[in-house]
Amino acid sequence: MADGSSTGASGGSQAYTPYTIRLTPTKGYGMFATQQIQQGACILEESPLVVFPSAEEGDQTPWHMALRIEVAALSPSDKAKFFGLHCCVDELEDEYKKHVRQDLFETGEFDHMDSPALDAELELVSREIRIRNTNCTQFASRSESGCGIYYTYSRINHSCVPNAYGTCDAANNMYLRALRPISLGEEITISYHEQDNLPRDERAKMIESWHFTCSCPACDGPERDKHEILRMDMMDIEGTLHGYDLAPQRQGGPLVEQGLLFLPDENAALLAIRYIGVFAAAGIKGPSKTETYERASKYCTSLGSFQAAVNLAELAHRHECIVHGEDMAGWTQKLLKRARRRLEKEAQASDAEDGQDSVLLRASQEAMRGF
Ligand SMILES: [Zn+2]
User: Fold this and answer.
1) Around ion ligand 1, which residues have CB less than 5 A away?
2) Where does the record place the SET domain (predicted)?
3) Considering just the CA atoms, what is the radius of gyration of the chain in Å?
């Protein structure tokens, strides 16, 4: 994210560094491709500068005190990196500063609440908190939760149609992967909030705290109106499909009878498949797109269109491998295995080529061609 530090480009030890970090005319520092990057390629592998529990999970130790301990333990060079990171969020509110002052006093390191040393420490911790709030990344791993600050990753600017996605493994290492082919010289971007399917005004609110105006193609490009229409369409589809989401597992029940849940019919499954195409048109290729494939696959299973379910599960898995890498795509691998088992079971139970020319099968084949 943006400016305020040296131009050191490499935070990891990997030999493959297809990017450089350099100043942009309007956005501070940014990451740029120094060669053509293939879809799914790992652009950056980086260990964290600082790791600490997320604010919600800070139990005995308030998270800002955990941060203080982590920063104090850094080597001099890492400390310089940390304090060189960009800091653009607002000053802390007075009430919050009072809490921090109290917590610092309770460490027993200061003689009294108004000591100049405590004042100085409060200013230091306040800056640490603001640097954290500007640059921290929530862990994307399914098994781990927490926040981390990654030196190089922090230089990547935001886009609502990002071309890269960062994910963490259980050891908190960050992997940045290309969501689509990236051209030489193109800026490499991520989404700071991953709510890229929201309308423009709502996306703007999501980035308010960073104090910048997004100039991505969906917000400020010649096709911004087209992007907005697609996102309104997505909101409508999401709203319609929401009522079907729990039904495939329930197969009826009082909520279905009351009209609160719906068993997916062919129209719902076709809409779920069409939704995939809307994501593609809107340029949204992150983890939320994997879920659109998964949902469509489950609807097809519940309607007995098992080959279509396999096709869509395969797309879910292929997409997940691009976003998170093959090692972390275990859940879509399982989804695909389950869909294949179901298809085999049906084939054994019946000689009929069930659904071979069904509307859903053809729609799923269309989705495969469009992948
Ligand atoms: Zn934008």
Assistant:
1) 160, 214, 216, 218-219
2) 17-193
3) 24
